[in-house]
Design goal:
Two copies of one chain form a homodimer.
Chain A: E1 3-4, E2 14-16, H1 49-56, E3 61-63, H2 66-72, E4 80-82, H3 84-90, E5 95-100, H4 111-123, E6 128-133, H5 137-148, E7 152-158, H6 159-164, H7 166-174, E8 178-182, H8 188-196, H9 204-216, E9 221-224, H10 230-249, E10 257-261, H11 266-280, E11 287-293, H12 298-301, E12 303-308, E13 317-322, H13 344-351, E14 356-360, H14 362-376, H15 382-401, E15 406-411, H16 419-427
Parallel strand pairs in A: 5-15, 6-7, 6-9, 7-8, 10-11, 10-15, 11-14
Antiparallel strand pairs in A: 1-4, 2-3, 4-5, 12-13
């Protein structure tokens, strides 16, 4: 068997909340003015109560609403495959599997949270969602989700991606969203940022500031975030739950090492948190490895501190590994990973020793991506290439040591819209940031 | 249930050859010099014997070689879904299903034949394949297949697509192929065509001429065609065989009307020929509707005659519905459908009354594609939009008449790399060719 196929009755019925299982509770978010722990009402201006309650929840299992589960059926359960041809290409003694989220409508895992967020906002009577997007994966996921629930969608897209990745903008517009390059002239924050940094190619932190400003100023609008926050990570745990079932179908005792790319953290968390639970319950000893880009190495080089989630300091203070809210990463191709911080729950897990982290330069990432594409057919997203590169390091190490670990890669998306980055890599002109 | 899931043990073991079941035999291809029926040796300069024998075969079932079936596992079986949300969006009384080939590595059905062709050529000791591509779907499929079997791959891409669709070229290059815009300065045919038509945006007929010239002149190289010929259609019949099994899982008695887009004919044939067999055996009465672009209406406006497959008259004479080998269609976005003729087996089936045909303009096609994308999430390929548009006509007719037919759409590919065409449609600037 090379593919573990599940049918729609096996889509998880609940999201898994790791907060219930952490040996120590994660530090709470703080109000930026008082520096006191946030209370739910502090977030009510920009989030619906359904999501605020999830943000603060300590329940282990949270039921997935039926309309969200119905939408999940358009792309879930996602496949988990043994990378037989990749193993052959490497001549490795390792057994390599990958969980593939790239067959979703917009080509990435982001839809898992987008449809949930759009649902709770629609239930709360909200008419419009404002959001940021880096590479455009989150923006296109939310654009799809918004039209599915009858909401308007305003996307602030990091200027570098807006200019360099027109296809993702077109995809958002096909789903009816309005897309603006960030920093823009439309918001106060945007104008101030453009004055301070006239030549900036933008950043996720800046785009978040603009979207938050718009949402806070309109009672019919809310803000929606594609990663970092607890409720976003929660929604992604369908990935890991399915993967646990699927790995069992291959008669593997356990996954020995799991690799996921980590920008804001939602993809890594979604795949790995259910595996961390297995570890905490003593049922496995899976190493979890976060693969971040060397250009935005929040876990490996950042400080574990209370910091803002955005450049303009509009968000609550989050305890996280951060490079500083004003850090603007080099314009590497993995736009979805260009974030200054790391999700508080991933940061806490890292601080508690529940996961490891490595940083990977983009040429190594794309070399891995090209190898993967030629072996498995799928051209991975720029972000996913970091996880693949991490896995290749381990496969090569294991082969030299004569070991046969079970490796699981989270392939978070497909790279059909990242092809200019592949062309740049193949031409030899890619900067090794 | 909304998705009929099969596992890899249910990938068909044989290809289905409709020639064995036609009530009358299809007219044979003729040698262009003698106008006598071709003999296998006539094709030996550009095809391996394994494919030549399939081209002339009258056996009903042809076993799929194990290495090809192993590669199929990377994307087969493909999903068949009930389009619940599309039905809701239309408010239709029809029940609509779609068979989705767009989750294959390169995003279309073309890989089904590409890996088979690369396999037989590699078995025959060939080192290099030359081919044409319109939108780039066939070229990227063959590029992937060639590297899987260790062959070099030379693609002549229709100039209009080469210039307008750089992403598909980058995809081919990621798989290691060499891509040249056609007509080119590299071949005699290309130079002659550029002299006669200096401003031409190219055509599939021209690109075929160039690839055939190159393959015929190099003993280590063969030619590979992405549609039209019997063996190509044969390889695609895995689609329809799976679809028959999957429709049965929904407890539908039969498909009442099947819609497939038709350019060269391989996608339509692959989905519909197993259904035509059911009709011929008296087990169903499924209407088969070929949806061609109004810009290249070979079935609906062409002549059923012996014609060349290419512009330079290098190919055998094929009995087919044709607009003439020198016909150059308007540069519509469905590059994969811009062919002057129609596969001889599809032409024969049409002539014998076993299938119907309609022609659809591109604005109607893209309107259908946008509706489909917003309902089902998937952005369909430009080509597939023609099949969806045909199905929407039938769904609307049925709703007005108060009928509930079972409709099956062949969604041959995804349109992530066709997004500029969607942007043009949404801007209102698309010509209604």
């Amino acid at each position: 068997m090379t593919t573990a196929v599940l049918d729609e009755s096996q889509i998880p019925t609940h999201w898994y909340n790791i907060v219930a299982d952490f040996p120590t509770p994660p530090p709470p978010p703080l109000h930026p003015g008082t520096r006191e722990p946030l209370v739910p009402d502090d977030l009510a201006a920009i989030f619906p109560m359904g999501l605020i309650l999830q943000e603060a929840s300590t329940e282990r299992w949270i039921e997935i609403p039926a309309p969200v589960r119905e939408l999940y059926r358009l792309w879930r359960p996602s496949p988990l495959r043994r990378a037989v041809r990749l193993e052959e290409a490497l001549g490795t003694t390792a057994r390599i599997y990958y969980k593939y989220e790239g067959a979703s409508p917009v080509g990435s895992h982001k839809t898992n949270s987008a449809v949930a967020q759009a649902y709770y906002n629609a239930q709360a009577g909200i008419k419009r969602l404002a959001t940021e997007t880096g590479a455009g994966q989150w923006g296109s996921a939310l654009a799809f989700a918004c039209q599915a629930f009858g909401l308007a969608c305003d996307v602030w897209q990091v200027r570098g991606s807006y200019d360099g990745k027109p296809y993702r903008r077109m995809l958002m517009e096909t789903y009816g969203a309005r897309v603006t390059a960030s920093p823009s002239e439309v918001t106060e924050t945007g104008r101030a940022l453009r004055e301070r940094f006239p030549d900036t190619s933008g950043s996720l932190g800046m785009a978040i500031s603009e979207a938050v400003e718009v949402a806070a100023g309109d009672p019919d609008a809310n803000y929606s975030l594609g990663s970092v926050l607890n409720h976003v990570l929660l929604h992604q745990t369908v990935i890991g739950q399915e993967a646990l079932t699927q790995i069992g179908m291959f008669d593997e005792e356990q996954v020995d090492v799991l690799f996921g790319c980590a920008g804001g953290g939602s993809n890594l968390a979604g795949l790995s948190f259910p595996f961390i639970r297995e570890n905490l319950e003593g049922r496995s000893a899976t190493r979890i490895v976060a693969c971040e880009p060397k250009a935005a190495p929040s876990l490996t080089e950042g400080e574990y501190t209370y910091d803002f989630g955005d450049t303009a300091h509009l968000t609550p203070l989050l305890k996280m590994y951060s490079l500083g809210a004003e850090f603007v990463p080099d314009p590497v191709h993995a736009g979805g990973l260009r974030y200054h911080g790391m999700a508080p729950l991933v940061s806490h897990a890292y601080h508690e020793g529940l996961l490891e982290a490595i940083a990977i330069k983009q040429r190594e990432a794309f070399a891995a991506g090209v190898l993967f594409a030629n072996a498995e057919g799928i051209v991975p997203a720029s972000e996913s290439n970091h996880a693949i590169a991490g896995a290749l390091r381990e496969a090569r190490r294991a082969t030299e040591a004569g070991e046969s670990p079970v490796i699981l890669i989270g392939v978070s998306g497909n790279g059909q819209l990242d092809l200019p980055a592949y062309a740049e890599y193949l031409s030899g002109d890619m900067l090794d940031s």
